[in-house]
Amino acid sequence: MGHTATPQEASGRLTVTEHRLANGLRVVLSEDHQTPVAAVCLWYDVGSRHEVPGRTGLAHLFEHLMFQGSYQVPGNGHFEMIQAAGGSPNGTTSFERTNYYETMPAHELELALWLEADRMGTLLTRLDLASLDNQRDVVKNERRQRYDNVPYGTAFERMVALVFPEGHPYHHTPIGSMADLDAASLEDARQFFRTYYAPDNAVLSVVGDIDPEQTLAWIERYFGSIPPYRAKPEPRDGSLPETIGEELRRVIEEAVPSRALMAAYRLPQDGTRAADAADVALTVLGGGESSRLYNRLVRRDRTAVVAGFGMLRLSGAPSLGWLDVKASGEAEIAVIERAVDEELARFAAEGPTPEEMERAQAQLEREWLDRLATVHGRADEFCRYAVQFGDPALALTAVDRVLRVTAEEVRRVAADLLHPRNRGVLVYEPTGEPPEAEAEETGGPAGPPVPDVPADPDIAPGTDAAEVGEGPEEPGRSEGGGESPTGSEVRQAAGPAVDAATAAPEEERQ
Amino acid sequence: MSESNTPAGAPAGAPAGAPGSGGMPAMTLHPRPESGPPRPWAFPAPERGALPNGLTVLRCHRPGQRVIAVELSLASPLAAEPDGLEGVATIMARGLSEGTDRHTAEEFAAELERCGATLDAAADHPGVRVSLEVPASRLTPALGLLADALRAPAFPEPEIERLVANRLDEIQHELASPPRRAAMALYAQLFPAASRMSRPRQGTEESVARIDAAAVRAFYQAHAGPGTATAVVVGDLTGTDLDGALARTLGTWTGAVRPPEPMAPVTGDDTGRVVIVDRPGSVQTQMLIARLGPDRHHPVWPAQVLGVYCLGGTLTSRLDRVLREEKGYTYGIRAQAHVLRSDARGSGAALLAISGSVATDVTGPAVADLWRVLRTLAEEGLTDQERDVAVQNLVGVAPLRFETASAVADALADQVEQELPDDFQGRLYARLAGTGTAAASEAAVRAFPPDRLVTVLVGDAGQILGPVKEAGIGEVTVLPGT
C-alpha cells in the first residue's frame, strides 16, 4: 500500500505515525491504551472559504447532508449505528475545513471506519432533494438559534464582513445567508461532493486503544478502493497586507441588553512564530481575570462586566485578535475605548513583565493539556496539523513553541499590530426597541461574542443547547439525555449569560 | 468476513441507478463489520477519607490525566439564603477568590494563573461548588490558593460592591437570552412562591441589590466549614504526595458550622398550562416544557433514564425524528431529567424537561406535533429496539463520557451533594442493562403525561398566540417580556 511510517517521539509518551494510501488518503495513527476508547477524525480540506458568491453556507449545509445516508447506510443510519455501538458522532464546518468524527468504544472502531468510508465513497447514491430540503430547514433553524435570535448574535458575521474585504474568501462565515441557503440546489451539493469529498483531499486520524497494524489494514480495506479526484481546486487566495492601515468602524443600534465594544485586529497567520507571540500578547492583555484589560476595565474603572481578548487562528488568511467588552451599567463606549487604547499603547511601549509572561504561558500550556486530554482532542489536532501544516507531529510540540516565545517578540507584535489603524470596530448601542426584521442587513445579532465567535456549526445541538436552568447549573449533566459525551464538551463553565471573551472555542484557540 | 466486489449485498431500497441519483458506487463494498471483543471498563471507584479538620476527601487516580480536577462542595443550600437576599450564596462563592489574608483580589487572580489554574465557583440548590483545574506539576500551590479562599476570604467591601454591580449587569443579559428567560418563567410557574426554587438561583434585581459585604460574611460564617464540606480530587496522581499537599493546604482550614437544615420535600404545581413570555421580533420560539419527577434515589431512575433518552436524548430519538428530521422545524429538541436537589430520605426531585427552539411561523404545528409524539408514546409505548439502542448507547459511551478528570470529579461531587453512595454511577450501568422495555416505557409515559406539563414559550406573542391556542395543549397566558 506504499505508506511510509514516520514514528516520532514528542511531548510526553504520545507518539504519532503517518501513512498514505495509494488513492492519496493520508492516515495518522496514535496509540494510547489507558482507556478502551478510540477516536476517529476525518478532515476534508474544504470550508466556507471554498464557497463561491451566491452559495455561502454550502459547505456547512453539505456537512449535514453527510449524515443523511449513503449506499449501505440509508437514512439516519450513520448516527443510529454509531450510537447503538456506544459511540458519539458529530461534525463541524469552519472557514478552512470540515471535520467529521466519532469517538467509539475501542472494540467498535472497525464499524466507524466502515461508516466513514461508505459515505466518502457512495454518498451520491443516496443524496436526494427531500433530504436537502429537510436539512436546509434544519440549518436555517440552526442559524436562527445560534445567531439571529441571540443578543449580539451576528457580531461575528458583521465583524468578519468588515475586516475581510468584499470578495475575500473569509468575508462570509460558515453559517451562510438565508438567501443562499434557499438557493442551494441538489446539483450544487453533488458538484461540491465530487470536487472536495475525495480521499486525496482528506486526512483520517485514529487515536486511542488501537492496534496500529490492524487499524491500517482496516483502513486499506474500506477506503483503499475509493477513487481519488486528482484535481482539487485551490481556494481563492486569502492573503492580505500585514495591516489594515485604517480603522474600520460600524455602530449598531439594536435591542441588546447593554452597550458593547468589539474589535478585531489583523494578526499573523497560524503556523508562524509571530502568531504564537500574538497569542501570548492577547493572553497577557485579555486572557483571564488577571489580564491587563480585565484589571483595568472590570476591577478598577468598573466600566465593564466582561473584558477580554480571544484569538481566531487562521492559516489561509490573517488570524484575528478578538476584543469583547460588555459595558457595566451606563458606562460609555468612548470612555471604555480610551482605556483600551491606553492599555494597548502602554503594552506596546513596555512589553510584558516576566510575571505576565509566566502567567500567560502557564495558561496556554494548560489549555493545550486540556485539548490533548481526550482521544478526540488529539485526533482533531493531528488532522489540523496534517491538513494545514503538512505534519501531524507538530501537534505534539505546539506547546513548546508557545513557551519559546520571548517577551520582546510579544512586545513587538503588539506594537506592530494591536493599534487602532489595524482593526475593525463594532459598537453596540441598545435601542430598547425590538429589532426590525429589515434592519438585519448582514444577518442577525451575534451569539456569544468571543467565545462562540469563530463558531463552527455542528451537526446537532449538544448539552448546552438544552439549557433548562436560569442560573449557573450545567444542564444535561444527568445521564438522562441531551448528553454530548465527547470529552471536549464535558464541562461547560458555570456562569451567567454574559459571555466572557476569554473562552474562545478550543478548536480555534490553539 | 467475506469480500464482495459488487454490491450484491445492497441494502433494501438501494437507489442504484435511479434517475437523479449518483448511480452505482465506484468503490468496492464490504459488509458491515462485526464488533470486536469488548474491553472492560468500570466507572472509577474513589477512595474515601477525611482530614483531621473534618473535611471529607474523595480521591481517584486517573492515569494520563495531567490536568487535575478538584471539586469542593460546601453544604450551603440556596434554601439557607435569608429571605430577600437571594443571590448572596452566589456573591459569596464569587467573593472567595476576590482577596484573602495573603493576597489582594488582583494578586490572587495572578497567583492562580501563574499555576496555570482555573477556579470557578457557583451556587446551586444543594450548595456551593468550587472547581479547580490545574496541571499536576502545580497542584500543591494551587491547592494552597484554594485553601486560602476557603479558610480566609477577605470579602473586601469594594470587591463585593463590584460583584453585586456586575451581577446586576448580568441579569439584563439573562433576561435577553431566550433559554434563560424561559427557565426563569418556568421556575416561577412550577414552584410555590414561598419556595426558594421559584426564584432564580443567582437572585433577582431586587434581592441582589440588597447584598453587601456584611451579608456575604454572615452567610460564609454560617455555612462554610471543613466539617460539612467535601473535596474530590481526580487525575494522574503519580508522584504526587497528595496527603502531604492536603495537610499543608485544605488541612489548615478551621471553623465549625452547623450542617444545613434537612431539606423540605420539593413540590410543584404541574397543572397543564401554557405561558407565553412575549419577546417581540423573535425569529424563533424557545420552548421549555417541564414538570417534577423522581430523582436518583428512586428505584425508577434507570428506567426513567432510558425512557427520557428514547423520547429526546439525541438526534435519533422520537422528538427529533419528527420535529427535526421529518419536519425541519428545529435544530434540535432535547428531553432530560435534571436533578434539582436530593437527599437520602427521598425528599428531592428532578426537573423533567423538554427544551429547544422552533421557527416562529411553525410554532403552532411544532407544539401540536410534539404533543402527538407524547400521546403516541402513551398509547403505544417504546419498542424493544428503542430500549436496546438506548442501553447500548448509555452504557457504551460511559468510558468516553468519563475520559477526563474533570468529568469524573464532577460526577463524584454530584453524588456527594445528592447523598448518593460513591458507587452509584458505577452500579447504574448494570441497572440500566437490567431494565426492560416495559419498565422504560412506563417511566417515560409517567415522566411526560401530556396533560400535566407546564409549557413556557419565549417568543413573539403577536405571532404565536393564536396558533398555540389552536394547538389545544392548555390554557394560555401571556406575560410581558421584562
From TrEMBL, chain A:
Low complexity bias locations: 485-504
Keywords attached to this entry: Hydrolase, Metalloprotease, Protease, Zinc
GO biological process, one term: proteolysis
Domain Peptidase M16 N-terminal: 26-145
UniProt-annotated stretches for the region Disordered: 426-510
Domain Peptidase M16 C-terminal: 185-364
Protein's UniProt keywords contain Protease: yes
InterPro entries xrefs: Metalloenz_LuxS/M16, Pept_M16_N, Peptidase_M16, Peptidase_M16_C
Domain of life: Bacteria
GO molecular function: metal ion binding; metallopeptidase activity
Any Pfam family hit: Peptidase_M16_C
Protein family: Belongs to the peptidase M16 family.
Protein name: Predicted Zn-dependent peptidase
Organism: Streptomyces aidingensis
UniProtKB/TrEMBL annotation, chain B:
Listed Pfam families: Peptidase_M16 (PF00675), Peptidase_M16_C (PF05193)
Biased composition (Pro residues): 34-43
GO molecular function, one term: metal ion binding
Residue ranges of the region described as Disordered: 1-48
UniProt cross-references to InterPro entries, sorted A to Z: Metalloenz_LuxS/M16 (IPR011249), MPP/UQCRC_Complex (IPR050361), Pept_M16_N (IPR011765), Peptidase_M16_C (IPR007863)
Peptidase M16 C-terminal domain ranges (all copies): 211-394
SUPFAM superfamilies for the chain: LuxS/MPP-like metallohydrolase
Superkingdom as given in the UniProt entry: Bacteria
Domain Peptidase M16 N-terminal intervals: 66-191
Listed Low complexity bias regions: 7-18
Entry-linked PANTHER family: METALLOPROTEASE, PROCESSING PROTEASE
Name of the molecule in the record: Predicted Zn-dependent peptidase
Species whose genome carries this gene: Streptomyces aidingensis
Highest classification ranks of the organism: Bacteria, Bacillati, Actinomycetota, Actinomycetes, Kitasatosporales
